[in-house]
Write the structure tokens for this entry.
Amino acid sequence: MRALLALVTDCYGGNGGLAQANRDVFEALAAIVPVDVLPRLAEGVSATPAGVSQRKAPRSRSAYVASAFARAWAGRDRYAAVFCGHLHLAPLAEAIHRSTGLPYWLHLHGIEAWRPPSAFLGTAPSARLVTAVSRYTRRRFLSWSEVDPGRCRLLPDTYDARFAPGPRSRQLVERYGLAGHRVILTVGRLSSSERYKGHDRLIVLMPRILEKVPEALYVIAGGGDDRPYLASVAERCGVSSKVRFIGRVPDEDLPDLYRSSDLYVMPSTGEGFGIVFLEAAACGLPVIGGRLDGSADALRDGLAGTLVDPGNMDELLKAVVGGLQERGAKDVSVFAKPAFAGHARALWGEFFADRSGSAS
């Protein structure tokens, strides 16, 4: 059986949504094709599942390019295709395709694909298959790309089965001082380049939320360079005691953090999809997201959560206050691992079976 060479920014040993999304794809495909992962940024290599191997990340960009070409050339009779896990790596995948003849699969996550990335790729990448995590990302990509729409398919993100309803964690309630509060939660990297996620909008809204729900507490999980800015917004609004920064939460604690909260809110304007919406909803939380980006796909156009215009503070306030009174989990099982894996394998069979020798 021929294998898949995967070029990604991050994967095993990495944190964040991109690394998780890559792992989900490869674990789905590993049942039908061996996957050889070459990450650009991973500092270490964690254990990989059966059928997946990961190389150590080269130290520099030039070393990464050289390593990718060397592996592609050495394995051009072994590999059925190249997986390109980020649009910024597409020029490299395109060059390998032109040099070796290996077809490639380009996977799009979100904002990086909403406008032409560089002159080096052009408007017509020759990927045999392009997948996008949401309708919004697909639409924005096709608005500038000359790729045949029939080769640009949807492959929404998924979530792990460990995210499921359960009791509050006494340990986390005590650790983060959540007792007696109605907890509004946002999980994500605090980056000055990603203010579109809307942390500051919710902080600005907290005085009005507290008028209606005095026991409300906004918990922000995640680390990054934008924490000082967000803390200054909280201070300026007089709600520093009602906004709690808890830093990056270990992956193993995330399900309990969701279960120990009352409402998940991320009023983003630049989300490609939003795995965190699925995780929160799967744990039984009411969820609020923006209707202007890929969040609408994760929330199933309102079936799995409440969609708002993130710029409309009155609408967001009404949704938050209502969400804190809401009970009952919404169904996101359509995004569960079995459905995701079947979808990914079907795409492989449709577009690459002629080279892999298997359509299963």
In short: The mean pLDDT is 92.
